[in-house]
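Entry 14. Structure prediction run on the chain below.
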Amino acid sequence: MKILEYGQPGFAQKLKRACPSFRAADEIAETVRTVIADVEREGDKAVFRYTEKFDKAKLTARTLRVKADELSAAPKTLTTAQRKAIKEAIHCVKDFHRKTMPQSWHAKNPHGATVGEAFFPIQRVGLYVPGGQVPLVSTVIMSAVLAKLAGCPEVAVCTPPGKDGSVSPSLLAALHLCGVEEVYKIGGVQALAALAIGTKTVPAVDKVFGPGNAYVMEAKRALFGRVGVDLLPGPSEVLIIGDSTSNPAFIAADLLAQAEHGTGKEKVFLIVESREQAAAIQAEITAQAETLSHRDAALGVLKHHGFCVIASDLEAIAEIANYIAPEHLELQVKPDSRKILAKKITTAGAMLIGGETPTVLGDFTAGPSHTLPTDRTGRFFGGMQVTDYMRRTSIVEYDAKSIALAWPVVRAFAEMEQLDAHGRSLEMRLEK
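Output returned:
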């Protein structure tokens, strides 16, 4: 991991360079534009061609959609413990998000008119679930459970196929247990384009959800407006803040956990009080990595995208953390410091408090969705929630008495904005 020291000359610029760039590289943007244009022009034909090019799988209109019996049979391929784990994670996520369900309401405004809000599920949503080297079973739960809880009538899922055209049985099992029936073997940009634009085989959706690589995120940016998007959650990020009370082994394990996702673009940040602490953690990383199946990938991320900041002042630490706006923030510091930092750090996607709370709990089962803002978008985005799968409509109902009270305001604004038809539309009702 690269070492940065707070207060040293050039620290701010070094930190800026260390943080993810929101702008996609020119070659990524060009590829995305080409794929989207081809899917819009050729439909399924382009989807099949790009699936063969990028995923090495040959599919047809008959094999593109996962069959119902394949979905229903998938849970039987898992062990009892695996099925139980998926069901428990579903329960935890559903329990958490049920508490966040918005309620429609009505009240009287100062004019005596009835105003309020009504919430409706989005009619048709598309969920993207990354596959590739790491089939993200947990991502199924973190998105499908919310869609079902919101009451979305139609839920379509796209996930990349293997070279043989199959989808991981564990992914299919989770989808079936979440109640999803419409699943397509499509990955990458062509999946987002098919969901947003629609093809003969894949009906268009109203909004797309889910994490992905740089190409998927650029596709969501390019398609926004034609279709709704949730966030722009790219490769995983973590910031761990430690002090003299921290366990170096715990911190090392959590850094490796976030570095092993497999894209090679993950960002890993650490803030500790001294170089001695950083050295102890690095020694643990080296030792623990030897036993990992994704050893080379994890160490590669830590070498190229890992940054350790040396800082001890809590105000400075909070300032640094708020600038990074990490997807995951772990506070492995003493209790008094936790309380201070938990109030001062306001841009983290998820905050995991204390040495006994590794990010993996949020990844798999704690309850909040693990689809979180990355690339510093935590400055203005929060993590995925059930309201993302719903529409809000405002309600306004005036009568003869209440419009009379509103008329002076309407008349004044109509005059200021020189919009006589606006004013006249209310005045004629008063004259009646």
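The radius of gyration is 25 Å.
Filed with the rest of this week's runs.
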